[in-house]
Amino acid sequence: MKYYFLLLSLCVTSHAIAAPQYLQYKYNDAVTIVISNVPCPYPNLVKEYPFASAAFRVDGEKLTGCFKKQDENLIELQWYKGDKTVIPANSFLVNPNGIKPIEPTL
To answer: Any idea where the domains of the chain sit in the sequence?
Structure first.
C-alpha cells in the first residue's frame, strides 16, 4: 500500500509541475519502461491516460504512450500505436539490477 501512495504522489500534479519526475522498470533485458508526471502529449489519449510513458529498447527504438492507475496496485500503459500493457505499480519502485536512471525524452 505504501508503494501505491508513493507512486500516486509522483503522479499527482498541481497547476504547475515543478520538475518532471520519472520512474523506470526494467521490463526485460531489452526494454526499460519509464512513467512520468509529464502530461500525456496525445489528445486522443490524455482524457483517459493523463501521464506520459515511454519504452526504450536496447537497439535505440522508443515507443511512446500514456498511462493511468488501473486499480490500487496496477498501472495501465496505453501505447500510442494501440497496444496496452498492465504492470504492478510497485515494479517501478524496485531497482533490482542497479540500473542507472535514464532521463528520457518523452
So the answer is: 2-15+23-93
